[in-house]
Structures are given as structure tokens and as C-alpha cells.
From TrEMBL:
Entry keyword annotation includes Signal: yes
The protein's name in its UniProt record: Right-handed parallel beta-helix repeat-containing protein
Residue ranges of domain Right handed beta helix in the record: 155-272
Native source species: Hominilimicola fabiformis
Source species, domain of life: Bacteria
The keyword Signal belongs to this UniProt entry's keyword annotation: yes
Signal peptide: 1-24
Keywords, ordered alphabetically: Signal
Record field: transmembrane: none
Database matches in SUPFAM superfamilies: Pectin lyase-like (SSF51126)
Length: 506
């Protein structure tokens, strides 16, 4: 195997140059290794999407009866000895500006730049495997000198695999126009601005990693504090994204953020705790509908309860933006499934957006602490209507002291396709002193001018002594199909429907 070259000697290693730190010494070997890892990731992700994607071929009744207990593809083998390389010897190019190796402690190294700048080596390069041997870890601590800008962008890198590395005290790590970037079993702690950012990148995987206190020095909460942010546009969409088995503690902004054209993604088996703002956030997303995009098995706790940066005074008052799983207005997310997620203790909405299927989620305690951080949107599930497809909300478990279990509102003249609310368990509890609820409460309220179909059936736990379901449409509008069949008290309903299957209060 060739010696480490300037292109690939990307990190400061320990004094002995022994087995503590290993990375690929040959670009062809490294590239082949990364491509093999990518192949495994894509196969794993495709299996997830195909299993969930089958749901969209079923009728609502078949979806309600589907059983996913035996479905588990959470184990994907990455970073084994198959991808471990011997460094051989080390060239002088890894040395610091003064020609010495800067070692803070055993397995802990100063990093002077994330990109090649002056005499400093870069961390990330194309066709590179960076990892420790024998399952050991290495800590990289940002130590930018005055002549090195803290805001650096890694551009045009492809085929990079990083494993068992702990990154500490960086401003942020940002990739732009990069392809096939994989982080496995890494950590990102005490980042000043954001954690890790991808703009106009594709084939991204963040696996088995931990993010703690990202954005701890931010001053503008609208553009900072994200643990992971992925941004795409029409010319360079961010496609093929997997974020799986990661933990996030105290994101000082929103935890996972997708912006613009982001497609073909899976966000799965992650735990998010104590975010200052939202947990999983899609701001003006654009998806093609060609893929079964999946958000499943994530646990989102204490959303809006995190510790903000000392510079972020907005977090002390406003609770707007503290939804757990959220997609922005004016969007549509066809072929998107939100399944088996848990939301517990959330200042704003639990699940909000124009998803095609929201299935078997558990949402508890939305609207919590909304007196201290006021927001008028404290529903467990808020349905953003779309004209493109029927939306299905099936088998969810809801316990909330917020405004409603299900809510939807639009004042547009569009004619929406339809909503199914089936087999959900609801418990709209009494409010207490910590909950701001300034509107009439009900289990379900749908308020829009025109919608073709509404089916609300076989839900349990709804109120029988108060108006539990209220549906408002334009006076004189004729729906195609309308059915309500639940043990509850029915309030306002549409005047006309071409086919009314049932209106039953039992």
C-alpha cells in the first residue's frame, strides 16, 4: 500500500503513529471501500422504502389492518474490519504550522482548518476513509488561529467515510456540492453555530452518531442552531439522505432541518431530546413523489424545552416553531409516511404537514409550557391540506391538553382531495395553568371551503358530552363523500354530499 500522500493525510495523529488512528492510504482502495459502504446503505434504505411504500397501494381499510410488528431492518453493518486500512508511514504534511504534531491528550488532536488553508492540512478530501482501528475513538478539537476564518466550506468532495471520530468546539462543519458523504458512529459536541450542514449535496448518510449542544453561541435563531441541516434547490436537489440511529441532545435551534428540494430520504430510529425549537423540520420542501420518503420510529421529547444560547432571547418567549415533526406552508409531500414516532412534551404541534400517511404514532402532551412560550397552535396533529392526494391518519394514539387532537384549516378556494381519520385513540384532557388555550376545544375540527371527501370512523376516546367533531365547508358546496361513525357527540357538519355513508353518534 502506498504511503500517505499530501492529498490523503488529513488528520493529526498520535505521537507513536501506531494503531490508534487509521485511514486509507491509497485513493483507489479508499474509493472502493466508500462505494461498497454506500452500496450497503442504499440497499438497506431501499428495503425500508419499499416496505413502507407498499402501504400506498392499499385501501384505507387495508392500511388500518396492516401489521408491522415483524418488520425490522434497523441493523446495517458498517465500519467493520472490511474497511480498515493500515497507514504504513506518515509524511510531514500532517504536521502543524510549526512542524510539530499538536497533541492535547491521548487520542485528542487539534484541528486548525476543515479545508486546506495556507500551511494547514485539510480534514476532508475525496476518496478517503477516516477511522480509528480496533474500535478506538479519536477526538478532534477545533483550534482555529486568528488568520484562519472560522466559517469554512468543504466544496466538491466525494466519496468520504468517517467513523469513530468525536468533533468538539467547531463553529460548524459545512459541505457544499459534495457527493457520497457518510458519517458513522461519530459525535458532534458544543458547536458554536450549527452542527453539520449540507448544501446542494446528494447521497448523504449520518448513522449511529450523537449531537450535543449544537448552536450554543448563536445570536439568530432563524438561521442557526441546527444539529443537521440539509438544503437543496431545483438545480441541485439534495437527494438520497439517510439519518438513522442518532441521538440529539439540546439543539439550540431546530434539530433536523430540510430546506428546499430534498428528496428520497429516510429519517429513522433517532432520539431527539430538549430542542429549543422544532425537532424534525421541513421548510418549503419540494419532493417529487417518486420515492416513499419515510419518517419512522423517532422519539421526540421536550420539544421547545431545551437550553438556548445566551444570545437567543427569542427562545424565552415565543413558542412558534416548536413543533416536533413539521412541514411548512404551501408544500405537498406525496408518498411520505410518518409512522411509529413518539412525541412527548411539546410546546407546539406534535405532527404537522401535508403528509400522505400518518400511521401508528403516539403523541402526548402538546401545548405544554405554552403559557411561558405562547403559541396558538397546540394540536396533537395538524393536517395541512393538499389538492394532490388523499391524506390518511390511521391508528395514532393521542393524549393532549392542547387545543385539539386533529385540526385543519384553509381559507383558500382550492378543492382538496380528502381526509381519512380512522382507528385513532384520542384523549383530550382538561387544561391546566401551564397550557394556553384561547379557542373552543374539540377532538376534531376541519375548516376549509371545499373538500371532496371526509371519512372519520372507528376512533375511540372522543368526547360524548361536548361537540367532539366540527366540520365547516362553504355553504352550498356539495362534497363527493362524507362519513362519520364514532362514539362521540357530533357538532357542525357539511350541508350536502353526493354520497353520505353514515352520520352516527352512538
Amino acid at each position: 500500500m502506498k504511503k500517505i500522500t499530501a492529498l490523503l493525510t488529513v488528520l493529526m495523529m498520535c505521537m507513536t503513529f501506531g494503531a490508534d488512528f487509521v485511514y486509507a492510504a491509497d485513493s483507489n482502495s479508499a474509493r472502493n471501500a466508500v462505494l461498497q459502504i454506500r452500496k450497503e446503505i442504499d440497499s438497506h434504505k431501499s428495503n425500508i422504502q419499499s416496505k413502507n411504500g407498499e402501504l400506498f397501494k392499499l385501501t384505507p381499510e387495508e392500511i388500518a389492518e396492516a401489521d408491522f410488528k415483524n418488520y425490522d431492518t434497523s441493523s446495517v453493518l458498517l465500519g467493520t474490519d472490511l474497511y480498515e486500512f493500515s497507514a504504513g508511514s506518515v509524511s510531514n504534511d500532517i504536521k502543524g504550522k510549526d512542524g510539530t504534531i499538536n497533541t492535547l491528550a491521548p487520542n485528542e488532536y487539534k484541528v486548525h482548518s476543515t479545508i486546506k488553508y495556507g500551511k494547514y492540512p485539510s480534514i476532508f478530501n475525496s476518496d478517503t476513509v477516516i477511522k480509528t482501528s480496533g474500535g478506538k475513538r479519536a477526538t478532534l478539537v477545533a483550534d482555529y488561529s486568528d488568520d484562519v476564518p472560522s466559517y469554512q466550506i468543504v466544496k466538491n468532495v466525494e466519496n468520504l467515510y468517517v467513523e469513530n471520530i468525536d468533533f468538539e468546539n467547531f463553529p460548524m462543519i459545512k459541505f457544499e456540492n459534495c457527493d457520497n458523504i457518510i458519517f458513522n458512529n461519530c459525535s458532534f459536541s458544543n458547536f458554536e453555530n450549527n452542527g453539520i450542514v449540507f448544501r446542494d449535496c446528494s447521497n448523504i448518510a449520518i448513522l449511529n452518531s450523537k449531537f450535543t449542544n449544537c448552536g450554543n453561541q448563536i445570536s439568530d435563531s432563524s438561521n442557526s442552531g441546527y444539529s443537521i441541516r440539509i438544503v437543496g434547490d431545483a438545480q441541485s436537489p439534495a437527494e438520497n439522505v439517510l439519518i438513522e440511529n442518532c441521538t440529539f441532545e439540546n439543539s439550540c435551534g431546530k434539530t433536523i432541518s430540510f430546506v428546499g428540494d430534498v428528496d428520497d430520504y429516510v429519517i429513522r430510529n433517532n432520539t431527539i431530546n430538549n430542542s429549543v425549537w422544532g425537532a424534525i423540520d421541513y421548510w418549503t420542501p419540494t419532493v417529487s413523489g417518486k420515492y416513499a420518503d419515510v419518517i419512522e420510529n423517532n422519539v421526540c421529547k421536550n420539544i421547545g424545552f431545551g437550553k438556548p444560547s445566551v444570545n437567543d432571547t427569542n427562545a424565552l418567549t415565543s413558542g412558534v416553531g416548536c413543533a416536533a415533526i413539521f412541514a411548512g406552508m404551501g408544500t405537498s409531500l406525496p408518498n411520505t409516511i410518518v409512522k411509529n414516532n413518539v412525541v412527548q412534551n411539546c410546546v407546539e404541534t406534535g405532527i404537522e404537514g401535508p403528509y400522505e400517511l400518518v400511521y401508528h404514532n403516539t403523541v402526548k402532551n402538546t401545548g405544554e409550557n405554552s403559557v411561558a412560550r405562547y403559541t396558538g397552535s397546540t394540536e396533537a396533529i395538524y393536517i395541512k391540506l393538499t389538492t394532490e392526494f388523499e391524506q390518511k391518519y390511521i391508528g395514532n394514539t393521542i393524549e393532549t391538553r392542547g387545543l385539539r387532537c386533529f385540526s385543519s384549516y384553509s381559507n383558500r378556494d382550492d378543492e382538496y382531495k380528502g381526509i381519512y381519520i380512522l382507528n385513532n385513540s384520542m384523549n383530550l384532557e382538561n387544561t391546566d395553568a401551564s397550557i394556553a388555550c384561547n379557542y373552543t376545544r374539540s377532538d376534531i375540527e376541519i375548516n376549509c371551503k371545499k373538500i371532496k371527501k371526509i371519512v372519520i370512523e372507528n376512533n375511540t376516546g372522543m368526547m360524548k358530552d361536548k361537540k367532539s367533531v366540527n366540520i365547516y365547508t362553504d355553504k352550498g358546496y356539495v362534497m363527493d363523500y362524507f362519513s362519520i361513525h364514532n362514539p362521540c357527540m357530533i357538532g357542525s357538519v357539511p350541508e350536502k354530499a353526493r354520497y353520505c355513508f353514515n352520520i352516527n353518534n352512538n
